[in-house]
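pasting for ref. prot 1 ->
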Amino acid sequence: MSIIPSTPVVQGSGKASLRLDGDALLLSRPHEEARIPLPAVERIRAEGRSLTVELTAPAGSTRYVHRIDGASAAAASMFAEAVNAALAGTPGRDTSADGTALVETRSLPRSRRSTKLRRILWMSAGALALLVVLCVIAARAGEAVAIVVFIPLGLISTAALAVGANALFNWYREWRLTRHGITTFAAEVPERPGMYLYTDPAGRIRHVFTWAGGIAVKVCYDSRDAGDVVLPRPALLRRGELSLGLFLAFCGAGGFVGLVAMTVGAVDGSMNFSEPA
């Protein structure tokens, strides 16, 4: 039994996706994944940009479904047609059985990207909180005019820290995967330019998107999580990102060191922001 490779994955709205994984369908959402064995599937219906997986059920009972919306109408139609054609030859399939008993659902950990963004947001929030504290201290010391200097310098320093941290996170992830991950080649799907497929050690087909061009691209993925994948960039670009991240992080940290020093000066009277230089 096989599914034509032109429709290996159907992408829906809300980061939902449906793909064939061996003898089962995998319906993935941001925080949950359902594994639906083919014997549990009655049929798949494509209705415009929606794709519905109907489960088998005893006669007269409620028929449960899984649904994704916002998919490509053409991809949904091709996927449904291919899977429905393959269902007839699925061994052990009983359309009168309760398909829900075969479905396995598991919660997914927070994605790497969302985890990175949360960390950067928390760091930025901490930097802004520090800025507010410094402004309050300066105002209570009688140097309220210092706020005019503190706010723009603090905002610029916070932005530099956030952009620098993002660059360093990205550089470290790529460095870790190219150094300690598994390197292979992903082949382009002719009917879907920009989509490339690779197979992990468990035999699962994975996909990655890039406009790098060519019939195949080199990818590196984590041996413990084959979905954590990068496309290695030239060394010059990686070094440039590292240098940029370090420079911005240093500038951001230096800005806050300067703000703290000016606040101390405002408190002990060694700096007077009210008087012209």
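and prot 2 ->
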Amino acid sequence: MNHVRLATLFVGVMVLLAGCTGGDPVSEGGATDADGSASDDGASDGAGDGSAAESGLDVTESERLLADAGSFTAEWSFAVTESDGTESAVTSTYLVDLEKNRSVERLSTVGPDSRMDFETFYADGTTYTRYGDGEEEFYQVVDGADDTFESALARGSFGYESVEDAEFVGQETFDGVTVDRYEYTDPHLWRQYGASAFGSDENVTVTDFTVVVLVDGDGLARKTQWTLTGETDDGEPVSAKWHYALTGVGATTVDDPEWLDAARSRQSERDSARIELPARAP
């Protein structure tokens, strides 16, 4: 089993779930509780409490709710485990402060085909980017508008209408907020799809496909994830997981990164090293 075939399955799943919109998969959050995870303590049936459970899964106002909140942290990730045990993952984290017009975007990858990590910081009309780390570290400084808010929203694009039959299973706490938990499982559909999604030489049978959505009282999907497990014709297990999470809603701050002075210094050195050629004679 190779990574390309798992990625092929991932793309196919997202095309179906996103209603052929080509939207990115959804991931789970950036800033977290002290323990970095959701809490299941105090789960209840949510009956009669005016929560999203009474009106069904409706999360269509995410952009407005996040804009009104003024700041948030978003985390998106996609991970696969191949039949030979190789694990690969990519994670994007976004910190957005709309009120102060500052943002951070981080990308990290894990696995044999991982690429160079980077971090981007935006403030005062300038974007600073650090690539790599240590001896391989270098910087880029560019003036221009910031699109981190739009990028963070795009990462969370998900075809919720495809799982409108998701079942409300109770309430829990995520990032200090009470949320309704919805779950959707349809292994039959994905067994049929997965049989041919991994290529002709090594088919995969999907044994489980589950979507989990956590929705707060305002109708904001705080966390969305899907997990897929399967096995090859030889009985080797494979899996894929995608998640998108929103944390620190209304409470995210964007500080200067530790490397900002170094980026400015390098840019200043490059600017001062430029040689202005004399104008050509007419």
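Residues 3-95+150-251 form one domain.
The longest strand covers residues 204-216.
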